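@here heads up, posting the sequence + SMILES for the LBFN2T5F run so it's all in one place. Ping me if the SMILES looks off, I pulled it from an old spreadsheet.
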Amino acid sequence: MSTSQTAFLKGHGTENDFVIVPDPDNAVDLPASLVARLCDRRAGIGGDGVLHVVRSAAHPDARSMADAAEWFMDYRNADGSIAEMCGNGVRVFARYLQHAGLVGEGDLAVATRGGVKQVHIAKAGAAGDAGDITVSMGRAVLPEGDVTVSVGAREWPARNVSMGNPHAVAFVDDLDHAGDLFTAPPFSPAAAYPDGVNVEFVVDRGPRHVAMRVHERGSGETRSCGTGACAVAVAAARRDGADPAVTGEPVAYAVDLPGGRLVITERPDGAVEMTGPAVIVAEGVLDADWLAGHS
Ligand SMILES: N[C@@H](CCC[C@H](N)C(=O)O)C(=O)O
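bot reply: prediction finished. Complex C-alpha cells:
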C-alpha cells in the first residue's frame, strides 16, 4: 500500500466517460482488478475506461515514441483489459493535459498503443464552450470477408473495419433492434475477431448523417465510441460509393450517438479525423483505505 495520495479526475467525450489517473512517472500500480473497481459505477468512481496519463519515456509500451510525443495514453477498458486505441479517450486525454496546464491550445502529439496521434485543441468559445478537440486517427482498414452479427433472432451482415482496434458495423432498420445490449452481440466467423470486437448498429438520418449505438469490447454498451464513429463513417461512405482516395475530395459524416454528435472526416490521403467536445467534470483524491482494499 502506498502512503502517497493518488489523484484522479473524471472526464467525458460525448458521454463516453473516463477515470483519469495522472501518473507522469508511471509509479501507480494499475492491475486490471483496480481498473475495474475504479470504473464500477456503484463501488468506484464510474467510467467506461481509465486514462492512465504517463510520460512516454516512463512507460515500456511508449518509450520508443518518446521523441515524437511527450505523453502516453495508457488506455484500459472498464473490465481492465487493454485496447489498442480509444478515440474519445485521446480527446479527453488532451483536455486533461490542457486543464493541468501541461499543454495549451493548438497542436500536440499523443502516444497511444495505436501509434502517435496528432491532436488539435481548438480555441475556447463563449463562456461554457471549451472548444472542440480534433484527433487524426490514421487510416481505416477494411479487411475483405463476410461478417455477421446477431441479436436474438435478428442477424445482419456487418462491415469489418479496423481503426487500430476491431469493429463490426451493421446497418439496421431501427436502433431498437439492437435490444438492451447487456451482453456482447454474437458474431461469425469467430476467426474474424480473435480478440473480440466492438459492434456498431447504424441507421441513416439524412445525407452523410447517421446515428448509431455501440457495444464496446471490455466496456458494454457506451453512450459514445470515437473509433466506432470513425468505423461507421468510413463504412457508410463506402456503402454510399464515396471514396476520397478516388475523388480527391474529403468526405464528412455527422455521427449521432446517444451521448452527442461527432463529425468524422476522411481525407484523400486516407487519414480519418474526428472532432467533438471533451470535458473535465471533477477531480479529487482516491481514499487511501479504499485503494488499500484493492492491492
Ligand atoms: N470508447 C473508445 C474505444 C475503447 C476501446 C474499445 N472498447 C476496444 O476494446 O477496442 C473510443 O472512443 O474509441
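MO: The chain has a mean pLDDT of 96.
MO: One more: The longest helix spans residues 226-239.
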